[in-house]
Every structure is written in structure tokens, then in C-alpha cells.
Amino acid sequence: MSVYSKYDDYTLLNLLQEDDQLAYTEIFERYSKILVNHAYKMLANRDEANDVVQEVLLAIWNKRYDLTLTGSLSSYLYKATKNRILNHIAHEKVVSRYADSIADFIENDYVLADSSLRQEELEAIIAKEIAQLPEKMREVFLLRKVDELSYDQIALQLNITDKTAKQQVYNSLKILRKKLQSLLGIFVW
Question: Could you tell me the Gene Ontology terms of the biological process aspect for this record (predicted)?
Fold first, then answer.
């Protein structure tokens, strides 16, 4: 049992702002399971619930220098998790509407003659952007998205933690979305 488990949240936050990784680990261990269960009740998907909580807890670490809470850490984490879930659900609805509009487009025989050419061009653009990712990030991304390995399998294969694997995939998706977002808007239309 760590001495950190005896600290209250306020003390842990102060230590966190001093780059104390063990304080972060204690916060993570103290709240991750509770938050995942909370997120699971809203999302009904364990992987999505885990991903949401990972993002919330990672944000705590990334914002550690600027983090000022007016209430308790637990209420902040619950609210941040809820907001992240609502953003996730809103994004899923947008994706669903987009997929429905594409399906409608195809069902109504508006398929363009050059659609296979466009698909090849799009695949080439995506492959090029993936190739430009940093080497380790690209390796983790391809193991997850192409080889469909779990985060635990990737961690074991590359001798890294599953948290590092998740973070690498999250970072690569963030980079790829940013690069491809403007291209896709032009490309589809």
C-alpha cells in the first residue's frame, strides 16, 4: 500500500502540480474504475467507457500546471467524464447522420462513375498521412487499427504499458483527423 493512498485529493492535486507521477497514479487508481462504471452506465459499451475515462484522466495530467478546482476532485472528474460522454454521443450522432446521408445517396443511384478511383486516391492519401506519423506512434497505430491487436497485446509486443499504447493511438488519431478533415470535405464533394 502506497503512502499516497493516505493523502486526500487536495494534497494529491498539489503534488500533481509539482510533476509527481505517483500522485497521478494514485488519482488514476482511486477514480478510474468508478468513472469507467459511471461511463459504462451511459454508453453501454465497456471499451468506449474505458476510452472516455482514459481521455479525462490524461487531460488531468496534461493540464496539471493550470488545474484549479472550485469543488472536489471527484465532482470535477464526474463532470468531466459526463461532458466527454456527451461530446462522444454528439459525435456519434453526426457520424450516424453522415453515414445515413451517404447510404441515401447510394440507394438513390447517384453513384459516380469514378467512385473507385476516388476511393483509391483517398486510400493513398490516408496511407501517406499514416506514413508521416512518428515511427513508434505509427507502429502502435498499425498494430491496433490494421492488425486489430488489443492494447494489452500491443503493450506486450512492444514492451510498453497499455496506457502508453492507448495514448499513442489517441495521439495518432488526433493528428490524422486534423490532417484529413479539410481534405475529406473537399474530396467527398
Answer: DNA-templated transcription initiation
Say how many C-beta atoms besides its own lie within 10 A of residue 69's C-beta. 12
**Whether residue 66 sits in one domain with residue 97:** no
C-alpha cell at 150: 488489443
DSSP state of 110: -
Residue type, position 153, single letter: Q
Q: C-alpha 16: how far from its chain's center?
A: 22
- Say if residue 66 is in the same domain as residue 116: no
Q: Spell out the per-residue pLDDT of the chain, length 189, in tens.
A: 789 999 999 999 999 999 999 999 999 999 999 999 999 988 888 998 999 999 999 999 999 998 888 888 999 999 999 988 888 777 666 556 655 665 565 555 455 545 666 677 777 777 888 888 888 888 888 888 888 889 899 899 889 998 998 998 888 888 878 777 766 655 544
State whether 57 and 90 are in the same domain: no
In the chain, what are the helix, strand and coil shares in percent, each to the nearest 5? 80, 0, 20
User: Would you state the cell numbers that stand for residue 72, as one nine-digit string?
Assistant: 472536489
Rg (C-alpha) for the chain, rounded Å, is 20
* Same domain flag for 93 and 155: yes
Q: Which of 129, 131, 142 is nearest to 168 (CA)?
A: 142
Please give the sequence-ordered ranges of beta strands (E in DSSP) within the chain, or none if there are none: none
